[in-house]
């Protein structure tokens, strides 16, 4: 067989383990020949931290300011220079301006979903929901989130959860769609944290032994349960029973793991580090994300929720008081915590192997509404996201928007492209097929990787 695309000895050795990447030999060779895998470029990443800015941040008030636009478009904030000549961002992001040479800003994201539910599915799953804008909740055949897709396609690492979501589930009168495993099933769902890492009594009771239980006692109980299960399965084998066994084994492994317990023990961090991230929920959530990546967790979703005591809402859904909410709450916390995460990962040698993705489900309208305090409504036609680490070309701006940041002017990027990029950076083929509960094949990543973002 001819050597495809001039693969070297190291590449060929990888063929012996491609099954662990969820690909068979023919699909790996097709992908390598097409240049789809991260071969000969930046090494595949080990982890991803997805910073989901629930509600939809305004592109015009963060990463894509339009100083020359009329006031009813540009708003109240000024643009400031960054560490990258020619790149300007919002004045309320000074620490991120200082590390802009490590960021890649994409100013040309777009999709067609105008409701939070459908838009969340677009961005968190990389697929358009079949129901369109009328989706209300996840169903048994919904698309899985990207963390679940990775859990399905890549092998588990020891006993650490492959996907952790924190510090809460995003809810809008019910759980926002796109946060779960969808048709892949609960086995591939995230380990969901429901506590504030900034709380003085923060802990993860699910990982604690209660009622005087010891590790020896836990192992004894596990042994007894296995004997009972073996007898039950011998009498009547059941797929449902096998699924229960998998969940129970995973729970036992987590309870026994010092690595997992230590990763969640944020109190082990020194005071200066905790102060650097910020003594608030977003800051301590990002610090906890760094600890989890350090422990080997592959995918961490951090759901950003604002302070409901700041008037007008509790997240980036700024229909009212857009500028006061951003100025007094969301932007300062984002600036502090996001910049701290970048610098901390770099200091620990983890930045190049960890991709950070900052995004919301959409952007905000170019024109400011007359709502109380001035608001911006939903706008999926053009918005900005930011990437850092993971082999990203720092100081890069990809794509551009028109004079009102209303539509992409160059190099538009779809949510499917973003999903494909993420899978590609993990060394996977985005065209790899996964199957829904009806057995229908679906591409893991619907779009094409944006390779120009990376070294």
Plain-language structure description:
By secondary structure, the chain is α/β, with parallel strands linked by helices. It folds into 3 domains: 1-35, no CATH class; 41-203 and 268-453, Alkaline Phosphatase, subunit A (3-Layer(aba) Sandwich); 208-264. 32% of the residues lie in helices and 15% in strands. It has helices spanning 9-14, 25-33, 71-74, 94-98, 116-125, 146-153, 215-235, 239-256, 258-264, 271-277, 281-295, 322-347, 415-425; strands at 47-53, 79-81, 88-90, 103-110, 163-166, 191-192, 299-304, 354-359, 363-364, 378-379, 383-389, 396-398, 400-401, 408-410, 413-414, 433-435, 441-443. The strands form 5 sheets. Strands 1, 4, 5, 6, 7, 8, 11, 12 and 15 form a 9-stranded mixed β-sheet that branches. Strands 2-3 form a two-stranded antiparallel sheet. A two-stranded antiparallel sheet has the order 9-10. Helix 7 (215-235) packs antiparallel against helix 8, helix 9 runs antiparallel to helix 11 and helix 10 (271-277) packs across helix 11 (281-295). It starts with 8 loop residues before the first helix and ends in a 12-residue tail after the last strand. The model is unreliable at 1-35 and 239-244 (pLDDT under 50).
Mean pLDDT: 86
What's the order of the H and E elements? HHEHEEHEHHEEHHHHHEHEEEEEEEEHEE
What number of domains? 3
Unreliable spans: 1-35, 239-244
Radius of gyration: 22 Å
